Amino acid sequence: MKTFHLRVISSDKIFYDGQCENLILPIEDGQFSVLAHHENMVVAVEIGELHLKTPEGEWITAAVSQGFAEIINNRVSVLVNAAERPEEIDVKRAEEAKQRAEERLRHKQSLQEYYLSQASLARAMARLKTSKHKHWNI
């Protein structure tokens, strides 16, 4: 299968840098797939799960936060605030963050606080979902 160069960068590390056959990104209204020779564009990445398939056929999954992906000339750069493999996720900490966010959402708060609480809840839920499966197959 044809490949493209992929670089996934989070605020604290380079998560992945190499060839890729297929990239699936979380976007506002679902998932967005990128294959080799995709049309040039920029896409907003939302909180959720990123999946990438290496040339060896291995799927790598990551919980990602918001960011964007730039597709230019068969090269894809994904910049996100955070990217974590399932084995890197502290499940207990994610559960606690989920509970705190749910509690904050139950209280009356400003619109800005509401959106921050909503984002915290989405991040915690994405991390918990990603931590439950180590392998992803199509």
UniProtKB/TrEMBL annotation:
Family as reported in the entry's similarity comment: Belongs to the ATPase epsilon chain family.
Entries under HAMAP family matching the protein: ATP_synth_epsil_bac (MF_00530)
Name of the protein this chain belongs to: ATP synthase epsilon chain
Record-linked InterPro entries: ATP_synth_F1_dsu/esu, ATP_synth_F1_dsu/esu_N, ATP_synth_F1_esu_C
Role summary: Produces ATP from ADP in the presence of a proton gradient across the membrane.
Quaternary assembly: F-type ATPases have 2 components, CF(1) - the catalytic core - and CF(0) - the membrane proton channel. CF(1) has five subunits: alpha(3), beta(3), gamma(1), delta(1), epsilon(1). CF(0) has three main subunits: a, b and c.
Keyword Hydrolase: no
Membrane disposition: Peripheral membrane protein
Gene: atpC_1
Domain of life, source organism: Bacteria
Source organism (scientific name): Claveliimonas bilis
NCBIfam families referenced in this protein's UniProt entry, alphabetically: ATP_synt_epsi
ATP synthase F1 complex delta/epsilon subunit N-terminal domain residues: 4-83
Keyword Lipid biosynthesis: no
Stretches assigned to the ATP synthase epsilon subunit C-terminal domain: 87-132
Cellular compartment(s): Cell membrane; Endomembrane system
UniProt xrefs under CDD domains: F1-ATPase_delta
The entry's keywords: ATP synthesis, Cell membrane, CF(1), Hydrogen ion transport, Ion transport, Membrane, Transport
